[in-house]
Design brief:
Keywords: ATP-binding, Kinase, Membrane, Nucleotide-binding, Serine/threonine-protein kinase, Signal, Transferase, Transmembrane, Transmembrane helix. By secondary structure, this protein is an alpha+beta fold. It folds into 2 domains: 93 residues, 2-Layer Sandwich (Phosphorylase Kinase, domain 1); 223 residues, Orthogonal Bundle (Transferase(Phosphotransferase), domain 1). The N and C termini lie far apart (72 Å).
């Protein structure tokens, strides 16, 4: 009996040793895997950039930190899902709330470019661009950590099922102006210039007082001076895609201008980029708008809630949108000119408010209608669900 007991004890001890050895091997394998991912994703380059102080605003998070912040990326923490990945709400131990974007699988070329893009994006400092806080490189596909914007997206504001209908013209113009200024900054002030590549209402977040914040740089490209960026695969969203880019596979700043023109149409028509008419037929908003302009039928496509405003003012906005939607990129204005024009139009409008106090009171009453992002089921989202896949 003692002999059998000794054999049993030895067998148990052996099993324990084997199990411990397997656990240790698994730990070492995971550590090695993290190191490999870190190097593949440009972690060493980014780390050196941080040490040299070229980047002092980006933090490198560990995988465990982000898993704990998202409750292991639980589905209840999901804020939105798009063509480039899924966004989760993260809450750190100190109470900070962030948005964590888990991107889809990238190829090796994209991974090689990732660290340098992180360096560029980390240096973007504009109040109308969502701030990048850091990244995690210990995973196969790098995860990005952004500031969390609490009031949903422009898409939800304009198209949410339970939204308030009264959105003042001044608010619409301000959102357009701020979005245009953010894109102008990317095109003209970033070095090298950055083309967003997927401008659309779901990628414009709304902060306090409807402050616009451009987000989602999953399709963005840096454009070195005097170089043309040809794309082997078109990225973007149906309804917003630049026809010239779609045909020639050449991504330029003017591609963003076209997409912004569609966003401007959403603001003044409250229609989807691809919408259904009264007969249930699918229509392209840009095409419908251009046809309405050609046939002097602008009043039939504009949002009825702004039709009683000065016709000259609405015509100016429509004319700007028309310029942005030119089929030829070279005929479209630069984004900084679009921003300046919107600033001028809005300034004129506000002067009219001062001269007509009753109109100003009406505008203030409209602004008091608070938008409830929870009505769309995307409260605090960083990215709305793509309704038009087209990526």
């Amino acid at each position: 009996m003692l002999f059998l007991a000794g054999i049993s004890a030895s067998a148990v001890l052996l099993l324990i040793c084997i199990f411990a050895l397997l656990v240790e091997c698994q730990k070492r394998r995971l550590v090695k895997e993290k190191q490999i991912f870190f190097q593949q994703n440009g972690g060493l380059l980014l780390y050196e950039q941080i040490r040299s102080k070229q980047v002092d605003t980006v933090r490198i998070f560990t995988r465990e930190e982000l898993e704990n912040a998202t409750n292991n990326f639980d589905s209840s923490r999901e804020l939105g899902r798009g063509g480039h990945g899924t966004v989760y709400k993260g809450i750190f131990k100190d109470g900070r709330v962030v948005a964590i974007k888990c991107s889809k699988v990238m190829n090796m070329v994209q991974k090689d470019e990732f660290a340098q893009e992180m360096v560029i994006l980390s240096q973007i400092n504009h109040r109308n661009v969502v701030k990048l806080l850091g990244c995690c490189l210990e995973v196969e596909v790098p995860m990005l950590v952004y500031e969390c914007i609490p009031n949903g997206t422009l898409f939800e504001l304009m198209h949410g099922k339970n939204r308030r209908l009264s959105i003042s013209l001044d608010t619409r113009l301000r959102i357009a102006q701020e979005s245009a200024e953010a894109l102008a900054y990317l095109h003209s002030s970033a070095s090298p210039p950055i083309v967003h590549g997927d401008v659309k209402s779901p990628n414009i977040l709304l902060g306090d007082n409807y402050t616009a914040k451009v987000t989602d740089f999953g399709a963005s490209r840096m454009l070195p001076t005097d170089e043309i960026q040809f794309m082997t695969m078109v990225q973007g969203t149906i309804g917003y895609l630049d026809p010239e880019y779609l045909q020639e596979r050449q991504l330029t700043e003017k591609s963003d201008v076209y997409s912004f023109g569609v966003v401007l149409l959403e603001l003044i028509t409250t229609k989807f980029a691809i919408y259904s008419d009264s007969a249930g037929e699918k229509k392209n908003l840009a095409s419908s708008f251009l046809l309405a302009m050609k046939e002097n039928g602008l009043q039939f496509i504009l949002d009825k809630n702004i039709l009683d405003f000065e016709a000259e003012l609405l015509q100016e906005i429509a004319q700007l949108a028309k310029c942005c939607l030119s089929m030829r990129g070279e005929e479209r204005p630069l984004m900084r000119d679009v921003a300046e024009r919107l600033r001028s139009i809005r300034s004129t409008w506000r002067e009219q408010l001062i001269q007509n106090p009753s109109r100003e009171t009406e505008c203030l009453l409209e602004n008091s209608s608070h938008y409830d992002p929870s009505s769309t089921g995307q409260h605090g989202s960083l990215m709305a669900l793509d309704l038009e896949s087209g990526r």
